[in-house]
Design brief:
2 domains, 501 residues, alpha/beta, FAD/NAD(P)-binding domain, seven-stranded mixed sheet, oxidoreductase
């Protein structure tokens, strides 16, 4: 990085242009804030674009609304209706990553916000107990950005680490959180990452993918029933899927008149496939790069396995989806990141109903909603009996994200979004999904704009006004599938639910 230093001043600095980052931008700018989003990759949208996870997990039906609802409606309209995006059994909303990226790009281009791509976070500006912005490396020069509010929206929680904001990484102990299903002792177990691949079927055979040096395809033999030496799901702790079931998991729709249904596939398979240990992402830059390289090799090895041992050479890497030389996504799918120590933790008891009820207790400061189950990806949980990690969680119910879980306990000037909110390791299994991250980002953007308007800290924002602004934007703050934001009494119904009605 050269000696040249540029200085910018904005109202709201958003570090990371993923799901939360782009949603925060769109909300804050429509409230009049001067916003800058800094994103290292050339695409906005994070998980659902640059990381290739182009099948929405959760928030089915009318749940969610807001920017997430607008995005889902746009995908349905692009492909010709709700049925046209129900192409894989993993999701009711599937799409091409580049189509989603174009939607976010165009939505931001129509606003007054500015996006800076290709910039790398190198330092966080901290003035005693306050975050005042950050410094980036961009084009060989340093750029210092000062802001009234900074939003942590990176994939890794890097703002927390560089800003010395207290955070957790790994599993909390039962004594620390009081969660019934937390381990006795805290440890460094985190969810696996995945380097997703978008595959295309080519009649006559796709381009062969070579087996990377040092990779052993035997590790994949239990990913389906085809090569399972022991045909007992209990032994492997997962269902043994047929090739047909595996393939129809995540088929994607395709744009264009010449496209053939069923020729595009998202490889993000949870069983003995391309999940990879993520601990190295949170070490040195060299350790992160090494981890990502190894994760790519794992994915390429699985594609090679599909082409050879599974006998499907017609499937290969789609070469026209990502602007990358290796045709893999720009980012890994990071399921669990550093999580801020918040004003109030979001714990197991907040998402798992008590006494057999199907509804969770209402969070008075709820600002976003989700409905996904406590889904944790650990390759260690699909080993033979006696060798497993052993995570097993109860059924949860639709839940809220409280604003107090987005605020650092001790540090001002910062709002945590994306997967860095103050959710425990257990709750991260349901709070990490794409719709929830979009809605968290929208709430973060609204809160930041209010703090700018009133000249106050994010923790001093009037939560009732924040909730009213989100309702006005069509975003749910209490889960309710019976009253979508298209109905005239949407806001009134939401307020009644918030009050316990």
């Amino acid at each position: 990085m050269g000696n040249s230093v540029g200085v910018r001043e904005v109202d709201v600095l958003i570090v990371g242009g993923g799901c939360s980052g782009v949603a925060a931008l769109l909300q804050a700018v429509c409230m009049g804030a001067r916003v800058l989003v800094v994103e290292e990759s050339p695409w906005l949208g994070g998980m659902i674009t640059a990381a290739g996870v182009s099948c929405i997990d959760g928030n089915e039906g009318a749940l969610g609304g807001g920017i997430f609802g607008a995005f889902r409606a746009a995908m349905e309209q692009h492909y010709g209706g709700p049925e046209a995006v129900r192409t894989g059994w993993v999701s009711n909303t599937c799409f091409e990553p580049q189509v989603a990226a174009a939607w976010f790009r165009d939505a931001v281009a129509a606003s007054t916000a500015e996006c800076l791509h290709g910039a790398r976070l190198v330092r966080v500006l901290r003035e005693e107990q306050r975050i005042a912005g950050a410094v980036f490396e961009h084009g060989g020069a340093a750029l210092e950005v000062r802001a009234h509010v900074t939003i942590e929206a990176t994939e890794y929680g890097d703002v927390l680490a560089l800003g010395e904001v207290p955070f957790r990484l790994g599993r909390e102990s039962r004594a620390e959180t009081g969660e019934a299903h937390a381990p006795e002792e805290a440890d460094d177990e985190i969810q696996d990452l995945t380097m997703v691949a978008t595959l295309r079927r080519v009649q006559g055979g796709a381009k062969p993918v070579l087996l990377p040096p040092g990779q052993d395809t035997a590790r994949f033999h239990n990913s389906t029933a085809v090569h399972a030496k022991i045909q007992d799901p209990a032994y492997w702790n997962h269902k043994l899927h047929s090739w047909e079931s595996f393939l129809t998991y995540a088929l994607l729709p395709e744009s264009g008149e010449d496209s053939t249904p069923g020729d595009l596939f998202m490889l993000n398979w949870p069983f003995h496939s391309n999940d990879y240990p993520a601990q190295g992402l949170f070490g040195t830059p060299e350790e992160r790069a090494s981890t990502l390289a190894a994760a790519k090799e794992r994915t390429l090895a699985y594609v090679h396995y599909m082409q050879t041992e599974l006998g499907h050479p017609e499937w290969g890497l789609a070469e026209d989806v990502y602007p990358t030389a290796d045709h893999l996504p720009l980012l890994p799918y990071v399921r669990e990141s550093r999580r801020v120590v918040p004003v109030r933790w979001l714990r197991e008891e907040d998402v798992v109903p008590r006494d057999g009820s199907k509804r969770n207790a209402v969070q008075p400061d709820g600002v976003a909603v989700g409905d996904y189950y406590l889904d944790h990806h650990h390759d260690k949980d699909h080993r033979p009996p006696g060798e497993r990690l052993g995570e097993c969680f109860p059924s949860n119910a639709p839940f809220q994200i409280p604003y107090s879980a987005m605020l650092p306990r001790e540090v001002n000037g910062l709002i945590a979004a994306e997967k860095s909110i103050g959710a425990t390791h257990i709750v991260n299994g349901c709070s990490r999904l794409q719709p929830v991250a979009l809605l968290i980002g929208q709430a973060a953007g609204a809160a930041a704009a209010l703090a700018v308007r009133d000249g106050c800290e994010p923790r001093e924002v009037d939560v009732t006004e924040l909730q009213s602004l989100l309702l006005a934007a069509g975003a749910q703050i209490v889960p309710d599938r019976d009253c979508p934001n298209t109905l005239p009494d949407f806001a009134e119904r939401q307020r009644a639910l918030l009050a316990g009605g």
